[in-house]
Amino acid sequence: MENKQITVTSPLLPDREEFNKFLQEIWETKWITNNGCFHQELERALCKYLEVPYVSLFTNGTLPLITALQALRITGEVITTPYSFVATTHALWWNGIKPVFVDIDSRTCNLDPEKIEAAITPKTTAIMPVHCYGKPCDTKAIQSIADKYGLKVIYDAAHAFGVKVDGESILEAGDMSTLSFHATKVYNTIEGGALVMHDERTKKRIDYLKNFGFSGETTVVAPGINSKMDEVRAAYGLLNLRQVDQAISSRHRVADRYREALREVDGITFFDDIPRVRHNYSYFPIFIDAEKFGMTRDELYFKMRENKVLGRRYFYPLISTFSTYRSLESSNPKYLPVATKMADEVICLPMHHELSVSDIKRVLEVILE
Ligand code: T4K
């Protein structure tokens, strides 16, 4: 068997010559950060690509979460999912907010709307769901609960770049949505992220907050932070935007090949595409039923590693099991049976735009042999 490592993902990189041209421009103007031309152009280009009215660029995908909570003045308790990357809950903690974990729906790995109401208390101010793996949450059900109790909804859409439902961007749901443009994502700016909002006033407020609260040279209107994206990464992002559709198509082909090969395998399940959804194929999670498959998830995971097929157990362990959150009442596994089961069974297979037919064959051989 070949020796090359097959990693869970691989970054989409812009053409070096094109990037050099942009770098030359930046070197000439010497304007390298603080809302420069590339920053402004990327915000416009993203609005167009994502079909959303307002985008504010950030330096990563965690700070938009923290900033959205600040901007909406969220306090008290927020209902969220334990089945995500730890940044989702950390953003609440950094704002002094108590996370309240609610179980997920096994069909999507997203917050189960049917379980949200029971977790609402007089201190609840918002819901922070995640479109896990880019699979859309049940945004209608979540919104109707939010409306009934007067709660805000902030979507962690870190995985959901370009995802649409019935032709409409998933980023339109809720009060705000956040994106991550980290190297490991479908669309990357090396490190980077964004907040998506619905109105100009909020966009302005967010732009102040990500620049220390400055609204002018000598006026500070809020206790802001510094989380701006610089010009070099904005230029890189403009180039990557030109090729992201092609990358998503390549990922789609990889997902099709995995599904075809794994569909009849006893003990392995995965998600099919949802009708009327434009997926981005950001991850390809499979779930291992040890009894039926004849091997536990970890046995398969380590076998893959031995063979240099580096899948990842996203999102194991659950956030609720980490030391910071373990003692919360809602972290008790008895309230989170679905999330616990899925976290114990999941492996995300290598999924990126550069996987070759022979790479895919190798991944499948290791799983199936
Ligand atoms: N909300 C959600 C739901 C998220 O998933 C994330 C981030 C956030 C919020 C926060 O967004 P950011 O602040 O990060 O923008 C990765 C990422 O660091 C993280 O962005 C991501 N989610 C999380 C799910 O995964 P690791 O520790 O698994 O990445 P790492 O370094 O092990 O890389 C995985 C593989 O990717 C490597 O084996 C090879 C490949 N890779 C990675 C990097 C960094 C490359 O080929 N090149 C690279 O430069 O966390």
Provide a descriptive summary of the structure in words.
By secondary structure, this protein is of the alpha/beta class. The chain is built from eleven helices and 17 strands. Helix 3 packs across helix 4 (about 85-95). It starts with 5 loop residues before the first strand and ends with a helix. The model has no long low-confidence stretch (mean pLDDT about 95). The structure holds ligand T4K. Ligand T4K binds near residues 88, 193 and 312.
Question: What is the gist of this entry?
Answer:
The protein has 369 residues and is of the alpha/beta class. It has eleven helices and 17 strands. It has helices at residues 16-29, 37-50, 63-71, 87-94, 139-149, 200-209, 231-262, 290-293, 297-306, 337-345, 357-368; strands at 6-7, 54-58, 77-80, 98-101, 104-105, 110-111, 124-128, 152-156, 164-165, 168-169, 176-180, 193-197, 268-270, 277-278, 284-288, 309-310, 346-349.
For the largest beta sheet, what order do the strands appear in spatially?
2-12-11-8-7-3-4
Instruction: Say what the CATH topology of the largest domain is.
Output: Aspartate Aminotransferase, domain 2
Gyration radius, in Å: 21 Å
Biggest β-sheet strands, sense, barrel: 7 strands, mixed
Q: Are there runs of 5+ residues with pLDDT below 50, and where? A: none
What percentage of residues falls in helices of 4 or more residues? 25-40%
Please tally the β strands and state the result: 17
Distance between the termini: 13 Å
How would you name the oligomeric state of the polypeptide chains in this document? single chain
| CATH 2nd-level architecture of the largest domain | 3-Layer(aba) Sandwich
Corresponding CATH superfamily of the largest domain: Type I PLP-dependent aspartate aminotransferase-like (Major domain)
Estimate the mean pLDDT confidence.
Answer: 97
Which shape, going by the Cα principal axes? Answer: globular
Give the distinct bound molecules: ligand T4K
Sheet/helix structural class: alpha/beta
